[in-house]
Design goal:
By secondary structure, this protein is of the alpha/beta class. The protein has 15 helices and 13 strands. It is globular. Bound molecules: 4'-deoxy-4'-aminopyridoxal-5'-phosphate. 4'-deoxy-4'-aminopyridoxal-5'-phosphate binds at residues 68-70, 73, 98, 100, 145, 149, 175, 177-178, 199, 201, 325.
Length: 382
């Protein structure tokens, strides 16, 4: 089996799973319980919070646990909208955000919020000079992802932060899901970022666990009301084993990340150069430092992305159409649309997403199968 779908989800690491199991078995208490078992579970949560905070160089009180990035993105956006409504109703997002951001602002638009989408260029990057003129007195939130999940474009978060420095009342949210371990933290968690959202299963942690970095002093409304967990901001019994193992996975993801990304980029470069040598292939991801090392999006002229995905599946090679989240909804890629890719090519998009466990040999095997499929499809189309 070759697994090239790591942006959809990653396999949990054995040592992370071990932590999950041991924590589940040994720490059975509810962190809110008054007795010793509750206290022990609560201390573990605090330790995980401190570990995550130290890795991000932020305060432990700025880390809030969630069930994942969909919840985190909904919380930051809806929470900002609710808390800041008296000051304004204008929200800016990039035109290539994940549906957990774009669909959330669509809901808010139905409630009377005014949403502006900042365009991207042909390589899928927001230009800060395009963002600046869109800012108004009523703007309450700007949301731009760190790394696009469909084509891998790395957004200029530092430059956008500089642009937003003059507007301290606007919340700046960065969906950081695809950046962990792939782009240095310092590139996207700038002093101007108020909120950053994360999902553990994208960095070899367990599914159903995530966290939000929430800068002290910013105000958002709680998303979930209830027992008052997470400092009264996110109610619900904490997923203790998930959180403890997420903290471990996050530490491992950031360990030796330069070495790991150099390896991933070498595999991606090989795939990119090999695919580009075929006449009917169009590469949608950029070949540069402003493209994440692990995501490569391409299309084969005249062949729908899902056809290629299923053809590779027959050979036990696992890929996605442009994003796993929207593939079952049969929506065409919003990122390719925003990049100005013509309609006929948008349906062809296929995404390879790599991680450090993938090898050059797997990439070579992928290319052998690709060559066979290319010949088959060329015969059908000729
Ligand atoms: N944002 C981005 C950029 C993503 O790639 C994903 C996962 N596809 C999410 C948010 C949502 O993460 P989850 O499904 O784990 O909630």
């Amino acid at each position: 089996m070759i697994y090239f779908d790591n942006s959809a989800t990653t396999q949990i690491l054995p040592e992370v799973l071990d932590t999950y199991m041991k924590t589940s078995q040994r720490f059975i208490g509810n962190p809110s319980s008054l007795h010793r078992l509750g206290e022990q579970a609560g201390l573990l949560l605090q330790k995980s919070r401190e570990q995550l905070a130290a890795l991000l160089d932020v305060a432990p009180s700025e880390i809030f646990f969630t069930s994942g990035a969909t919840e985190g993105n909904n919380w930051v956006i809806k929470g900002t909208a609710a808390a800041k409504r008296p000051f304004g109703n204008h929200i800016i997002i990039s035109s290539i955000e994940h549906p957990s951001v774009s669909e959330t602002v669509n809901q808010l638009a139905e409630q009377g919020f005014d949403v502006t989408r900042v365009p991207v260029d042909a390589t899928g990057h927001v230009q800060p000079e395009d963002l600046q003129p869109l800012i108004r007195e009523e703007t309450i939130l700007v949301s731009v992802m760190a790394v696009n999940n469909e084509v891998g474009s790395v957004q200029p978060i530092r430059a956008i932060s500089e642009c937003l420095a003059a507007y301290p009342n606007i919340h700046f949210h960065v969906d950081s899901v695809q950046a962990v371990g792939k782009v240095p933290v310092t590139d996207w968690l700038t002093d101007r970022v108020d909120f950053a959202t994360f999902s553990a299963h994208k960095f070899h942690g367990p599914k159903g666990t995530g966290f939000v970095f929430w800068r002290q002093g910013r105000k958002i409304a709680p998303l979930l009301a209830g027992g008052g967990q997470e400092n009264n901001q996110r109610s619900g019994t904490e997923n203790v084993a998930g959180i403890v193992s997420m903290a471990k996975a996050f530490r491992l993801a950031l360990t030796d990340s330069e070495q790991k990304t150099a390896h991933i980029r070498a595999v991606k470069d090989y795939l990119m150069a090999s695919l580009a040598s075929f006449d009917k292939v169009r590469i949608f991801s950029e070949h540069s430092d402003t493209s994440a090392p692990h995501i490569l999006c391409f299309g084969l002229k005249g062949i729908r992305g899902e056809v290629l995905v299923h053809a590779f599946e027959q050979k036990e090679i696992y890929l996605s159409t442009t994003s796993a989240c929207s593939s079952k909804k049969k929506v065409k890629s919003s990122t390719l649309l925003a990049m100005g890719v013509p309609e006929s090519e948008r349906t062809t998009g296929v995404r390879l997403s790599l991680d450090e466990t993938n090898t050059l040999m797997e990439a070579e095997q992928f290319m052998i199968v690709f060559k066979q499929l290319y010949q088959q499809f060329s015969q059908i189309n000729s």
